[in-house]
Amino acid sequence: MSHRTTKFVFVTGGVVSSIGKGLSCASIGALLEARGLKVTAVKLDPYINVDPGTMSPFQHGEVFVTDDGAETDLDLGHYERFIEGVRMAKRNNFTTGQVYESVISNERRGDYLGGTVQVIPHVTDEIKRRIFQAAEGIDVCLVEIGGTVGDIESLPFLEAIRQLRFEVGPENTLYIHVTLVPYIKAAGEFKTKPTQHSVKELLGFGIMPNIILCRSESKLDLKIKKKISLFCNVAENCVINAPDVSTIYELPLTLHAEGMDDRIVELLHIWTGAPNLNPWKKIVNTVKSPANGLARIAMVGKYVDLTESYKSLTEALHHGAFANDCKVEIIYVDSEEIEKEGIEPVIARASAGQGIDAILIPGGFGVRGSEGKITAAGYARTKKIPFFGICLGLQMAVIEYARSVAGIKQATSREFDENSNAAVINLMESQKHVDRKGGSMRLGAYPCALKKDTLTRKVYGQKEITERHRHRFEVNNAFRSQLEQAGLIFSGVWPEGDLVEIIEIKDHPWFIGVQFHPEFKSTPKNSHPLFKSFITAALKHRDLRNGVKSDPSNGRSKGSEGSDPRQLTIA
Ligand code: GLN
Predict the structure, then answer these.
(1) What is the pLDDT of residue 9?
(2) Could you confirm whether domain 290-546 is CATH 3.20.20.80?
């Protein structure tokens, strides 16, 4: 890079939410990174909550956890998955609530010397301060404004980014407005009016977009682009179209083909070479024609959780599939149904008779559905089906093992029974005195030492790792030796706190539980080793149950796709 000035790309949204503004932002980051630039991204959330960790995942999707223990918006997960060179941290996400909290505590401290505290300049200054902080040492900082233009809450954010253009100069700032161009069936055409209105709204705040990114169901023709260009006062080659794609990882390629990164570097006066997009092309090829067929992964949880709360986890499973040149199908299995009907009929129904190749129990909270999860862990253990337990999933596997193998018949978690004397999963010492509702979890990255001669150590190929946490309960050290004697292997511990981080068992093709969330560190270009290895095990299990002799890591094997489902057993 010839310049050292940080450039800013502001991304706003119009028309409706949920059109992939976060993914667009992440993809733009990927393109600029592929051109050799050092990129970061910041998400500005307009809501008033100070602690996004306590927000319902049903309203906002997953809580994404960073190394430094911030519980953030799921868009930060997209940024980390698409932009490899930078790790997200607390400073990469802030809410209106946090901004006001800072301003109000400054005022309480007397920092404003008795002056009147106002949105402009005090609130906008605080917003700009936080943006600059996140952009330190970076070539291009992407700033995504949550919500859609015109929302009352986001006005101070828009005002702050308007001011920034004057502060850092027009050649160092760029505004991209993401809108939806709907196709109206009755008229048989795309409609540009919502985009026009939305741009007008933005102009009302003094922001003139340089690029309009039009999301649409299918490709827009030149006529529509010309119209948007004319009515919205944006150069024709700056009307970029992003029609729906079959995989999110195709978006960087789509945007590149439309000239997005060329326009950005031109407008920001950055000199770079052409981007290397081969890794993205390879991923898209794997998605479109996987050499090793399909692995069916049963994800066992409370039904309501399954559909919304596991963005990073489902992506990590896909990354594991990319590394195995295969595809995964995630089969949602409701653990409460398992409790009512038993596991086999539920799996048979959920998989439409196709059976499953592996079982995963994700993180979760609360007693509801836990017995069904414990049943699933036991089923995977005894039927030798590859099993991956994450956070609560590890806890379920430990309880199952305690009950069925170690003879602790009443084994449970303190989370489910406050008074049990067989709580093999217990509230952590450090969390006992904290209020349970927020700010009380073990959060962020902790180191973990891996035991020699274990599957886990082999999978990681390392002695020590660090992974991210978000939980309150842990394996109870009082039961450790009893469980160990019964054959449970504690293959990873946090050395400093002597806490169990990873479990596995002997005489099983693949059975691992982890107290942390490895999914937060997986990226499409660099699958997390646990997910990669888990999918390899699932493919082997698939071939085994189909009677196919093959090595999925090396060459094409005929998978269960296309085989006669009547010949399949459930697992
Ligand atoms: N509820 C469990 C705990 O708090 C597991 C949390 C999780 O799975 N993230 O320890």
Answers:
(1) 98
(2) no
